[in-house]
Amino acid sequence: MIKQDIVNRVAEKTGLPKSRVEMAVDAFFEAMKRALKNGYRIELRGFGVFSVRPRKRGIGRNPKTGAVVPIPEGKTIRFKPGKELR
Fold first, then answer.
1. Contacts by residues 72-80 (CB-CB < 8 Å, ≥ 24 positions apart)
2. Cβ distance 8 to 16 under 8 Å?
3. pLDDT: is 86 or 80 the higher one?
4. DSSP at 83
5. CB-neighbour burial class of residue 49 (10 A; exposed 0-12, middle 13-18, buried 19+)
6. Which of 1, 8, 20, 41 sits between 20 and 30 A of 70, alpha carbons compared?
7. How is 37-78 classified by DSSP, letter by letter?
8. In the prediction, which pLDDT does 4 show?
9. Is the per-residue pLDDT at 3 higher than 90?
């Protein structure tokens, strides 16, 4: 499912114009991006929790060449599904 599918389904369910629904969906995703970028945890009851976690430094391999590639420390986003999604 892509963003446009979400817009179409919300528009069908609510009867609102797709242009307004698309603005709302874009605003929702933008707010989520900003919150995660600032290190906040996002909890959507009944759906799940998005959180930012530190990622350890490590060593990986390029699957094409087999060369060793260092993986730097960083942050990653984790999603833990809620009870209703399990």
1. 76/52, 77/36, 77/50, 77/51, 77/52, 77/53, 78/50, 78/51, 78/52, 78/53, 79/48, 79/49, 79/50, 80/48, 80/49, 80/51
2. no
3. 80
4. T
5. middle
6. 41
7. HTT--EEETTTEEEEEEEE--EEEE-TTT--EEEE--EEEEE
8. 96
9. yes
Q: Is 17 helix (H, G, I), strand (E, B) or coil?
A: coil
pLDDT at residue number 86 = 84
CA distance 81 to 79: 6
Instruction: Judge residue 64's burial from the number of C-beta atoms within 10 Å of its C-beta, 0-12 exposed, 13-18 middle, 19 or more buried.
Output: exposed
